[in-house]
Amino acid sequence: MVGFDSLALLTDDQLAAFANRGYRFAGAYLEVLTAEYVSACFDLDLAILLLSEARTSELSAQLGAASALQELARCHALGVPAGVNVDIDFEDFTGPPEVGCEYIDAFAAGLVQGAQPPILYVASPQPLSGAQLAARPNIHLYHSGASDNPDLVGIGYSIFQLLPTNFKPAWGQGATVDLDIISRDRRGRIPMLWFPS
Question: Does residue 151 belong to any structural domain of this protein?
Answer without folding.
Answer: yes
